[in-house]
Design goal:
Helices cover 28% and strands 17% of the residues. By secondary structure, it is an alpha+beta fold. The protein folds into 2 domains: 255 residues, DD-peptidase/beta-lactamase superfamily (Beta-lactamase), CATH 3.40.710.10; 117 residues, no CATH class. The strands form 5 sheets. An 8-stranded antiparallel sheet has the order 3-2-1-16-15-14-13-12, sandwiched between helices. A two-stranded antiparallel sheet has the order 4-9. β1 and β2 form a beta hairpin. α1 packs antiparallel against α12 and α2 packs across α7.
Length: 410
């Protein structure tokens, strides 16, 4: 389903000429060869005020970005999995303070890295068990192998867990193996971007009695009309999938990265609740509107409004921000003035990050430079899709916010 503008920008408080700067700005990246192409959507008060595409989804094949292009959304999968978990929470299936070992016994006796090398790490017992809220907030002490910033990251890579897991490894196996690796820190004491949402996806499976793909399809994607969101693309749909690119280390030009991109063309062994979905602008737009409307869309309610408000508050210990609690390394967000809720980064104060936002705005992004945000104060949502790895190559997300909020004049 293609996404088109539904309202004139000035009818919802945008200056049309200022909003047009979004396209002209991002077009320069494509014209300079730094991005292959992109798709952008801006809404206000439930209406699409801006929807545009530019460049190619596949430069080598000569295929332009179309409104129905499929994108690897990577970590934008995390909010979907977090919603799945909170739907089960609303049913009383668990408490956020419950130890996850109740359902995933492999996590009953985890240990924490203390010192030493990857060849000879020294660990100590965890003084606090991993709880459900730790998974939702990335405070469990888990990490990612691809971060390459700690000894524990190295242990993940040695065990076969880099950006993708080793072939043939399913979600249950991965959780059993990850539980045997040391934690990066004591649960609840810091924030570290991690496989926590993959473990949360396994928790969803065990609690619900359904595989993660079945649960998402039947309980979220189907009811919300997200008919194009899936785990891989095959057949004719493979041609709709944007190619993956990375910056050339010398020139900065976008170079095709099929070594990473080809994973999206085959059924995954591991259903990654932290990064496995492909989606379209139209589908993810529906997801953001469901959030903006407090858990309901087109008469279908998946979460109560108080639950959505609860999820999008800062849940970091002591109300601290990521600037104080983050372990560093790769992340999908800036740090200062930013908290973290149950599946989303949350703006506590926009001034420290020097990015115009509203207090209470929540957002996330993916490693291929996709991004979304929901601003419940201004009733604005923003979506950016492109396929450039890593997402830290350019400040695309901050630039988009800068341009969109500069165009908001009412």
């Amino acid at each position: 389903m293609s996404l088109q503008r539904t309202v004139d920008p000035d009818q919802v408080g945008f200056d049309p000429a200022r909003l047009a700067r979004v396209d002209s700005h991002f077009a320069r990246y494509v014209d300079a060869g730094q991005l292959a192409g992109w798709q952008i959507v801006v809404t206000r008060r439930g209406e699409v005020a801006h929807a545009s595409t530019y460049g190619a989804r596949d430069v080598e094949a000569g295929r332009p970005v179309d409104p129905d292009t499929l994108w690897r959304i990577y970590s934008m999968t995390k909010p979907v999995t977090s919603v799945a978990a909170m739907m089960l929470w609303e049913e009383g299936r668990f408490q956020l303070t419950d130890e996850i070992s109740r359902w995933l016994p492999e996590f009953a006796d985890v240990r924490v890295y203390d010192r030493g090398s990857a060849l000879k790490p020294y660990t100590v017992p965890a003084v606090e068990p991993i709880r459900v809220w730790h998974l939702l907030t990335h405070t469990a002490g888990l990490t990612y192998g691809f971060l390459q910033t700690s000894v524990v990251d190295g242990l993940y890579r040695a065990a076969g867990y880099d950006l993708y897991p080793r072939p043939g490894c399913d979600l249950a196996t991965a959780c059993a193996e990850l539980a045997r690796l040391p934690l990066l820190f004591q649960p609840g004491t810091a924030w570290g971007y991690s496989v926590a949402t993959d473990v949360l996806g396994r928790l969803v499976e065990v609690v619900s009695g359904q595989s993660l793909d079945t649960f998402l399809a039947e309980r979220i994607l189907g009811p919300l009309g997200m008919t194009d969101t899936r785990w891989w693309a095959e057949g004719a749909d493979a041609e709709r999938l944007a190619a993956c690119y990375a910056p050339h280390p010398m020139t900065g030009q976008a170079v095709r990265y099929d070594q990473l991109g080809h994973h999206a063309l085959q059924k995954p062994d591991l259903l990654s609740g932290g990064g496995g979905l492909l989606s379209t602008a139209s589908d993810y737009h529906r997801f953001t509107q469901f959030l903006l409307r407090g858990g309901e869309l087109d008469g279908v309610r998946l979460l109560g409004p108080r639950t959505v408000r609860f999820m999008t508050r800062n849940h970091l210990p002591g109300g601290q921000d990521l600037g104080r609690l983050s372990t560093g390394g790769f992340a999908e967000t800036t740090f200062d003035g930013i908290g973290f809720g149950l599946g989303f980064a949350v703006v506590q104060d926009p001034v420290p990050s020097r990015t115009p936002s509203s207090v209470g705005e929540y957002y996330w992004g993916g490693v291929a430079s996709t991004a979304f945000w929901v601003d419940p104060v201004e009733e604005v949502t923003g979506l950016l899709f492109t396929q450039l790895v890593p997402s830290s190559t350019y400040s695309l997300r901050a630039e988009m916010r800068q341009l969109v909020y500069a165009a908001l004049v009412d």
